[in-house]
Amino acid sequence: MAGTFVVYSDKTAIAIELIGFCRGSGKRAVALAFDAAAAQEYAARGAERVLLIECGQNLPEAYAKAVAGVLEREGAEGFIVGSTVRGREMAARVAGYLEWPLVSDVSKLVCEEKELVTERPAYGGAVVQQERVKLPAVVTVPAGKFEPAATSGAGAEVVTLEAQPDERTVLLERASVEKQGADLGSAEKIVCAGMGFAKKEDLKLAFDLAAVIGAEVGCSRSVAEERNWLPTDVYIGISGATVKPRLYLSIGVSGQVQHVVGIRDSRVIAAIDLNENAPIFKAADYGIVGDLYEVVPALIEALKNC
Ligand SMILES: Cc1cc2nc3c(=O)[nH]c(=O)nc-3n(C[C@H](O)[C@H](O)[C@H](O)COP(=O)(O)OP(=O)(O)OC[C@H]3O[C@@H](n4cnc5c(N)ncnc54)[C@H](O)[C@@H]3O)c2cc1C
Questions:
Q1: Domains of the chain and any CATH numbers
Q2: Cα 281 to averaged position of ligand 1 atoms, centre (Å)
């Protein structure tokens, strides 16, 4: 299947996965980089051609018009972009300049002769929507969807491009984000608190259980956004954090689809809920039907003595 796809991500690891997708689809992969280290990495990891845009103080997305020009000159029929905040900015602007269709945040991407077949969750994760989009097109893809391209012996040439940034966007300052809660993305064990807790003070039970088993504490969206009991950084689900711990243990979480979408890659899911028909039990490997105010203190006691 001849043809060229240009790939871009501000996260090098995602770009290497996208190069893997192009190669697996029989496409020539042209990788776009904004720093020399990433460019060298792509050259060694299967890109047929690497274009390095030196952007100095400017943001990569300020080069969207220049990138659109690159796509035209390369005769590209696809722009495959990592779904990060920066990537989505770049993808939308480039699609606008070229008047190409854009499909964002796909969960599955397959390349056919003259079109891309994409899948993505819709209606809060309740259904999967399949779309066919004619090439040329722009697609954004989250991390972890494709095998990273293997190291290639040859190593592609890196071509440095002169490009004109859009001066309307200027980087004034960089400041690190102060995270308030735990880093759930890399947590090995998570205790998740839901609306089953009657009072904020009662969350101490979740924290005590977490301390005993060495877990981080997360929550459902309602606990963070409706009750403001925990920071929004730690709510789990389709609009919050996606987690994949070895153990996810929910307490008083009903398990609506928007929540379960964020936990389904957990190795073991355990749940405590009063309602035996709570949907969380359909997703769970282990469940305890009972009152959290009885079950959790008993669990803490039992596990303390293990
Ligand atoms: C577009 C959209 C996006 C959303 N995104 C997210 C998201 O990312 N994450 C998310 O979590 N939600 C999300 N939601 C909200 C989601 O639909 C649910 O409303 C939410 O997850 C419910 O939170 P919960 O399970 O804590 O509360 P509830 O649904 O109220 O469940 C509370 C549970 O506690 C149990 N319970 C009550 N008392 C006790 C007790 N004493 N002991 C034991 N169990 C008890 C009940 O039986 C019940 O199952 C989204 C909704 C929409 C529309």
A1: 4-161 (3.40.50.620), 184-304 (3.40.50.1220)
A2: 13
